[in-house]
Amino acid sequence: MKWMNWLREEQPFDDASFKSIAEDKNELDMKQVFDIQKTWVACLEDLVHHQIDRTLDFSRKTATPPFLLRRWVYGSARQRYGELFEYQALSGAYEKFHACSDAVLHYNQYGLKEHALQILEDELPVHSENVQASVVRLYAETTKKK
């Protein structure tokens, strides 16, 4: 079974949810951002722990959690909030989270499971929490100005 098929079957998003988020070019709410990030972390954990699919052949790349999250951070969030300090903090936190995710994928793909596990368990949670805290601060700041 391909990784994306597993993702659609096992994770809290159904095809309609992925499609609506992927097609929404305007904005994601805070819950959607958290759900996407949570889904991506869960996918990384299951990939490393259970070796669901080492190739990560994304047949529907535009509907995958890392693509959706990245598109939001560097798309509509940048357009709407790019001048805010809170957005800059989010962007920096996201870059560290993304680099950490890439390292997990890289080590796992090349059979270095222990390295992947170490990053997954030690570094990824810290960067994930930093992204979540940055999202909360960004939404708090933008709500305050309305």
Describe it for me?
By secondary structure, the protein is an all-alpha fold. Helix content is 76%, strand content 0%. The protein is elongated, with a radius of gyration of 15 Å.
Mean pLDDT: 77
Assign a percent range to the helix content: over 70%
Distance between the termini: 47 Å
Largest sheet: none
DSSP, total strands: 0
Task: Quickly count the helices.
Answer: 7
Pattern of helices and strands: HHHHHHH
* Helix vs. strand class: mainly alpha
Unreliable stretches, pLDDT < 50, 5 or more residues? Answer: 1-26
Strand content: under 5%
CA-based gyration radius? 15 Å
What shape does the CA trace take? Answer: elongated
In short:
Helices cover 76% and strands 0% of the residues. It is mainly alpha-helical.
Defining traits:
elongated, 0% strand, mainly alpha, 76% helix
Write the layout of secondary structure elements.
Layout: H1 3-10, H2 15-23, H3 30-50, H4 65-74, H5 76-81, H6 85-109, H7 113-144
Helix pairs in contact: 3-4, 3-6, 3-7, 4-6, 6-7
